[in-house]
Design brief:
CATH topology of the largest domain: D-Maltodextrin-Binding Protein, domain 2
Number of helices: 16
Oligomer: single chain
CATH architecture of the largest domain: 3-Layer(aba) Sandwich
Number of domains: 4
Strand content: 15-25%
Distance between the termini: 47 Å
Radius of gyration: 24 Å
Number of strands: 20
Structural class: alpha/beta
Largest sheet: 6 strands, mixed
Strand order of the largest sheet: 5-4-6-15-7-16
Helix content: 25-40%
């Protein structure tokens, strides 16, 4: 890596490749949303899923069910990483959340979250970590993965990172010394898919997700095998903050515990392959605490050293994290096969944070829009090394206005006094260009 202007990283020529991408944005004409009778929605966070990421609809169904039972509007808040959800909980922006077991342990110690309920699956409120490889792999045990590529899920995941790191601790090693290449998938089902497609040699995944996919007939689980199972751990719980209103806490808890007693609740649980929700003691998570203490004693270099052969690739957050991952991870996987480097996708919550990550060296390369590039160049001296080519072969794209089918409005002048949705403030096609076009038509924000 070569440091530019003291702050910005720029890749050397050997790290540069032909990267193509398409910028597609739209500004939609939306009808006003109905109010919720003046009640502020209860925001319920979802960070840890005990079923695959594409079953997020079931979590939405659970949350809507809880809202119906307590007769109060609710809103699901999903975040890509456990850390992002932990921050929301600590700041009090989320009062109730589905989180991973390891973050629960940390958050209880740090700012006092408490278990509300926990799911019970196959008769037990516990789960395991599975170490998996491809069916064709000759690897039969965890130590045989030395020198291989390996997928963790989230840096704070119990089954997807802490347990395999603990196994390495028993061998006197850290991940950077043991594996040839390590990457983070940020979802258990994506890790399983990567092993099945031979993108990585092995992965640590949650047993609940693996078994759900196996029972659902997933081709990815059929192409993989389990070479090691961990001891049972306390299952990812539903937690609440300490200062939650006691009456609200009691209503939400009762709604979870009684889900199987109603036809609608039972149908949701069966779709997720969950027996139901139960009360569990904090002691169920002591095994995780013991592993974390052991991992914490790893030499500092093993825990904090950044792999010089890993390129950290930033992308501005045009879509939700799951869509961005599914869109760009195949590109990074392709680059890893064509260059001597591993690539890790780094997603931030805003355009500003994406630029800052490039400036501070958290990312080495970033895929920016025109406006964010100009900001990064002006403020930090970032350099453009590639431009995208669209389907027409040119390095250009457009901003388009769209309307609902059947909407009679035909031109920009018809938008005066109407509702218009813009994208992020730093979006070129989703904010800057449409506002410019509207201004040229004599329409400003206070006219909308």
């Amino acid at each position: 890596m070569k440091r530019m202007s003291g702050t910005v990283y720029s890749p050397s020529p050997r790290k540069r490749g032909n990267i193509a991408f398409f910028l597609v944005t739209a500004i939609a004409l939306l009808a006003p949303l109905p109010s919720s009778a003046g009640q502020e929605p209860i925001r319920i966070g979802v960070a840890s899923m005990i079923t695959p990421v594409d079953t997020v609809k079931y979590y939405q169904a659970i949350i809507e069910y809880i809202g119906d039972r307590i007769r109060h509007p609710v809103q699901m808040v999903h975040r890509r990483t456990y850390e992002e959800m932990d921050d929301l909980i600590e700041r009090g922006e989320i009062k109730i959340a589905f989180i991973c077991s390891a973050p629960y342990v940390k958050n209880r110690e740090k700012f006092g979250v408490e278990i509300l309920v926990a799911p019970k699956v196959d008769g037990s409120p516990t789960y395991r970590s599975y170490i998996i490889v491809h069916n064709d792999s000759p690897v039969q045990s965890f130590p045989e993965l030395k020198g291989k590529s390996f997928a963790f899920t989230d840096p704070k995941s119990n089954t997807g990172r802490i347990y395999p790191t603990y196994l390495l601790k028993t061998l006197g090693l850290g991940p950077e010394r043991f594996f040839e290449r390590v990457l983070y998938s940020y979802s258990h089902n994506k890790s399983i898919e990567m092993v099945a497609k031979k993108i990585v040699d092995g992965a640590a995944v949650e047993s609940l997700v693996y078994e759900y996919m196996r029972k659902s007939g997933s081709p990815y689980t059929r192409q993989t095998k389990i070479i090691k199972r961990s001891p049972p751990f306390g299952i990812p719980p539903v937690v609440v903050v300490r200062d939650i209103d006691p009456a609200l806490r009691g209503k939400v808890k009762e709604a979870f515990l009684s889900m199987r007693d109603s036809a609608k609740g039972k149908a949701i649980l069966e779709a997720m392959m969950i027996d139901g929700f139960v009360e569990v003691p904090d002691a169920n998570y002591d095994g995780i605490r013991e592993m974390e203490r052991a991992v914490a004693r790893l030499p500092a270099a093993a825990k904090t050293a950044r792999d010089r052969n890993t390129v950290h690739f930033g992308v501005i957050p045009r879509d939700n994290p799951r869509i961005l991952y599914e869109k760009y991870q195949p590109l990074l996987d392709y680059l890893s096969t064509k260059t001597p480097y591993a690539y890790e996708l780094v997603l931030k919550k805003s355009y500003e944070e994406t630029v800052t990550a490039l400036a501070t060296g958290e990312t080495d390369i970033a895929l920016l829009g025109p406006l964010t590039y100009l900001e990064a160049h002006a403020r930090y001296g970032a350099l453009c090394i590639l431009k995208a080519r669209g389907a027409d072969g040119t390095a250009r794209y457009r901003s388009v206005f769209i309307r609902k089918k059947g909407n009679p409005r035909k031109g920009l002048t018809d938008l005066k006094g109407e509702t218009v949705a813009f994208a992020a403030p730093k979006s070129t096609s989703g904010n800057l260009i449409p506002r410019y076009l509207l201004a040229n038509s004599g329409i400003h924000l206070n006219d909308l």
